Amino acid sequence: MSSSELQRNRAVLPMSTVRELTLLTDRQIRYYEQHELITPKRGKGGQRRFSLNDIDRLLQIKDYLDAGDSTADIKELFAKAERKNQAQLGTDNSLRRSLQDEFAQIARFNNP
């Protein structure tokens, strides 16, 4: 994971900032959390802390709802995307292992 991706995953934004950035209400954000569309981290005292990726996801949710999708539809869309990402990650890891094996064989030929 790149350093910029790590920064995007840092949960540091409070609810008030998220409200301003997304134009969603506290109630809407809590509702999306209740329906497991988002999972913000919790800070000391239990306050929700959001990352930039959480903001992106909330904006996606808002767009899907504006387009007429239900929360169940959105949850399934996110689940499908996650399964696709996991499958791609598995393919990437398989390819990486295959390349490592090839490099090991080449090294054995070069150093008998």
From TrEMBL:
Q: Where is the HTH merR-type domain?
A: 12-80
- Name the chain's protein: Glutamine synthetase repressor
Q: Which Pfam families match?
A: MerR_1 (PF13411)
Q: Which UniProt keywords apply?
A: DNA-binding, Repressor, Transcription, Transcription regulation
The record, for SMART domains, names: HTH_MERR
The UniProt GO MF terms for this protein read: DNA binding; DNA-binding transcription factor activity
Instruction: Tell me which domain of life the UniProt entry assigns to the organism this sequence originates from.
Output: Bacteria
- Which InterPro entries does this chain map to? DNA-bd_dom_put_sf, MerR-type_HTH_dom, MerR_fam
